Amino acid sequence: MLQKQKVVELLKSIETGAPEPIAYINAHNYTQHNLAVADGLAGFGAVLQALPEGSAKVNTVRVFQDGDFVFTHTDYNFFGPKVGFDIFRFDNGLIVEHWDNLVQKAEPNPGGRTQLDGATGIDTAIDTETSKTLVADFVKTILIEGDMAKIGNFIGPAEGDYIQHNPAIGDGLQNLGAALGELARQGTPLRYTQNHKILGEHNFVLAVSEGEFLGKHVSFYDLFRVDNGLIVEHWDTIETIPPESQWQNSNGKFGL
Hints:
The chain contains four helices and ten strands; from the N terminus they run αβαββββαβαββββ. The chain folds into two domains: 3-105, Nuclear Transport Factor 2, Chain: A (Roll); 128-240, Nuclear Transport Factor 2, Chain: A (Roll), CATH 3.10.450.
């Protein structure tokens, strides 16, 4: 069975209660990076048992694979409506590690776009490593170093050149710049301090980063779609990282 299929079935089992997909997890070696969940298979099971019966809904909208990693973009009702990215690492055909980033589901953004709509098709004509290099350079140059003079190397100038799914921002560079400028004026700038992982499949690339937003320590998961050598579409989740005293495991949020 393909690793992508295993992940989709495992996520769907949260909704259906089907026991079979649990066998896709290595019962003796499963490292959990969701800090609200205890380590191992027992921690995963405890969360499922805590869900109110019949409350969970899971619709995986996008699924990609990069080597031993499968990453997904999912519409959840999981202790309330949420949107999330999940990353699973496989070893010898079994899932041995899991990361995620979840946010509350929001209303459509100023451009009328949601956190989940937009392109889903994988364009195999686009080289994966070229896409990953472009996004890694964008994260470093623009998001971490803040060298906005080079933004044209990554995103086209017209409003339609950059489709935005962040709940607070409309399409195009002008709206992105206005939103970032307003945050800075309010004294709550959005800061990326470190990139931990770049994963991709052809025209889709996920960047996992760390930083600060609204004065809080956060993890940034940014999914980009690449076309003709530029970034043309963006989805994201920003999750607050709780104090270590509240962690249910000791694995950390990243470790990628």
